[in-house]
Structure formats: structure tokens, C-alpha cells
Amino acid sequence: MPFLIAFVLIGAIALAFLRTPRGRGWLGELRVKLVIGKTKPDVRYVINDLRIRVNEEKTVQIDHVLINPNGIFVIETKNYSGIIYGTESQHEWTQVLKYGRVKNKLYNPIKQNKSHVYHITNLIGGSFPVISAVVFVQGNTKCIRASNVYNLRGLKRLIGKKEYHLSLDQMKSVYTRLTEVNDSSIKNSEHIKNIRKLKSRTAKNICPRCGKKLVLRKGKNGSFMGCEGFPACRFTKNV
Ligand SMILES: [Zn+2]
């Protein structure tokens, strides 16, 4: 009998945890891990929760990096319920819950992951195919008008697509480089603090990605602020 009570209690605690934002994030990342697999030497290399210190004030946290013969996949996982609305260029996307009664904003994850791709490319050199993938594990991608957004099945297809070919030596060298810079001593609290700092810098027209100035530019869809470091850095923000 005490065994049964303990069992029920642990079950209840686990269920409660899975309903918190941290629990949902953990479950989402677990579901992606099941699709991309674990590191299997000479076949594929996986780094989960890659943390990089770019400089004193800039840290990067990447959910998953998968290196297989088809490319280097930089994966951002989102475990959101409801309906998600968003386009490629919007600064923020919208999560709609409870038949439209609740709306939440999230920073455009494509832009978020572009920054990850930029830093990975800087670290390993520009000659490798680095592929961005934003994965909505609940599959609610129907109202998203943007490329590089996938459900779990789409992710599986993407990582199996033979568009490029990395040799074993290339795969190993990228994996070694990324494991060298992986700094697990970077705490979540420090990373969040750095993101806030960068936000206020962006407001002062300093590029949060590379630190150069943001200047006014004209594009086919009107004016925008773009990084002075273009084309190496393609950060933009709306005017
Ligand atoms: Zn820049």
C-alpha cells in the first residue's frame, strides 16, 4: 500500500512538472532527441544544449546540433500548444490559446536561430553547410508562413535529405571544435541577463549579433535598420 501511495505521488509530481514552462521545454527537447538520436561515432554526432561564450557580454544557447553526412543542423525546439501565427519577417509571433481568448507573443524563432547559425558558422568556418531548423514538437505549424519551420516528421525528413555530403573527417573536425567551445558553466540566469542587455543595446542601434552599428537601409519592402557588417552579418530590425 505505501508503495502505491508513493507511486501515485511521484506520478502527480511528474505531471505537475510537465505542465511548467521548464517541464514543457524538457519534454519538447526529449522528443527532438528521439528523432535525431545520440552520437554514434562515424555515423552522426549530436550536441544537446550547446552553450558558447562569444565575449564577456554575449552568450549563446543552442538546443541541439546534429552533424551527419547530410550537413550540420542547428535546431531550436519549441513546445508550444495552441495555434501559432507568424511570418518570416515579423519580429514577434503570436500563440493563440482557448479559442482566441488568450494571446501570447514570442520572439520570432527564425531570427533567434539565424543568430545561432551565424555564431556556429563563425566558429567552424564558412565552407560547411549549416542548416537552420525550428521545430514545433506539437506540430502546430499550419499558420506559420516561413521556411525552415518543421514538425517532428518534417525534421526527420530534413536530416535525411542528401543535399550535401560531409566526409567523416569533416564531421569529426566540426564536432571536436564545437565540443571544445561548449561551456556548460554558463548558467541560465547569466544567459537571460545577457539577452536583456543585448535588447537594450539593439534599442540603441548596436547590432546584438556582432557589435557593429545598425544603419538605415532601403529594401524592396521599405526602410529598415541593417548591420554595418553586412553581408557577414545579416541582422536587421524594423524602423
Ligand atoms: Zn551585426
What does this structure look like?
The chain is globular, with a radius of gyration of 19 Å. The strands form three sheets. The chain has a five-stranded mixed sheet, with helices on both faces. It is built from six helices and twelve strands. The model has no long low-confidence stretch (mean pLDDT about 95). It folds into two domains: about 25-205, no CATH class; about 205-239. It has helices at about 1-20, 20-35, 110-125, 150-160, 170-180, 190-205, and strands at about 45-55, 60-70, 70-80, 85, 90-95, 100-105, 130-135, 145, 150, 215-220, 220-225, 235-239. It is about 35% helix and about 30% strand. The longest helix is centred in the N-terminal third of the chain and has 17 residues, at about 1-20. The structure holds zinc ion.
Comma- or semicolon-separated keywords:
alpha/beta; 239 residues; four-stranded mixed sheet; 6 helices; globular
